[in-house]
Amino acid sequence: MDMIKLADEIIGGKRLSREDDLTFFFDFDNCNLQNLCEGADKIRKELCGNHVDLCTIINGRSGRCGENCKFCAQSAHNCTGIEEYDFLDEDKIVEDCQKHVRQGVHRYSIVTAGRNLSGEAFDKAISAYKRMDKECDIELCASHGLLTQEQFNKLHESGVKMYHSNIETSKRNFPNICTTHTYEDKIRNIKYAQNAGFSVCSGGIIGMGETWEDRLDMAISLSELKVASIPINALMPIKGTPFENLERISSDDILRTVAMFRYINPTAYIRLAAGRNLMPECGKSAFVSGANATITGDMLTTSGNNIEQDKKMLDTMGFDISKKSKF
Ligand code: SF4
Q: Is 240 inside a domain boundary?
């Protein structure tokens, strides 16, 4: 397979779909990783430009989640000893957001553990978003699980532009990672968010025992859902979760996944998330293999990367990390 030719066709308007045979992406004998990454980088350059989008998150409510996601430190079904707390104080959130504005981060999101956010905690989130919208020069994102259409409408009115809701894996593999909610719940949630006017940030985690077909299916599903941003996490197995003994995914497999996602989602943000540190030099090679966004700062439960180091690395690589957003 000539990957540069395919990249040129995608730049010219071709789009890959479920009807195409795309198994060549993981035909290791005939799809050379270096060529695949070169083609992905070409697509990124031509269709997305040179800007890298930087986001950060605050864990607004931690632990005691009733859902049973097998990868997650915050599930009450898993014994991880994670710190547990209710919705954070508004001043603390706004102060943290302002700190990230000063550090040049482009997006800020409150993330909360739990199936959803409701009642007093939801009202507190709305109040915090309204204040940040007024006081902080930053794009606001949110991640609060499965919301109702009415809640999405209210959240959108508070100044939040992007909603995060991972599909996590393929439809086939989803019951292997969680049984307290379904893949269909996730899809409905994304559609509600889009109905309310949100751009959607949705991706998943690789290295949870899925096949390459599952990863391909996830990439195609996200393209069909027209999501704006696709976070790719590599599982960092956490002690006390059912996945604690899974082998860590290789750096080459992360790169192949990132590149494949770029061919299938040529104009989306392909966002590096947890597990970047499984790659040499904090995932530097992924930024020339299709990635054009990243979570930075201190991430939820897996070690993240220092914002200044990320900015320096990206600047040295010739990327534009000034404030600029297409969503
Ligand atoms: S719903 Fe969210 S917080 Fe709860 S276990 Fe699943 S991933 Fe973790």
A: yes
- The answer to whether the CB of 111 is under 6 A from ligand 1 is no
Q: Where in the sequence is the domain holding 57, given as residue range(s)?
A: 25-316
Sign of CA dihedral 133, 136, 142, 144: negative
Tell me if 2 is assigned to some domain. Answer: no
Beta-bridged to residue 305, according to DSSP, are 297
Q: So what's the pLDDT on residue 300? A: 42
Q: Indicate the number of domains in the chain.
A: 1
- Please report whether residue 325 resides in a domain: no
Hey, which of 69, 71, 109, 243 would you mutate to test ligand 1's pocket, going by the most ligand atoms within 8 Å of its Cβ?
Answer: 69
Q: Is the CB of 115 under 6 A from ligand 1?
A: yes
Nearest-CA residue for ligand 1 atom 6 is: 69
DSSP calls for 262-302: HHHSTTSEEEE-TTGGGSGGGGGGGGGTT--EEE-BS-SSS
Residue from 115, 176, 301 whose mutation best tests the ligand 1 pocket (most atoms within 8 A of CB): 115
Q: pTM for this one?
A: 0.94
Which CATH number does the domain housing residue 213 bear?
A: 3.20.20.70
Largest Cα–Cα separation, the chain: 56
CA nearest neighbour of 143 among 168, 120, 167, 162: 162
Assess whether the C-beta atom of 82 lies below 6 angstroms from ligand 1: no
- Nearest residue CA, atom 5 of ligand 1? 75
**Structure confidence by residue, pLDDT tens digits, 205-240:** 999 999 999 999 999 999 999 999 999 999 999 899
Residue 223 lies in a domain: yes
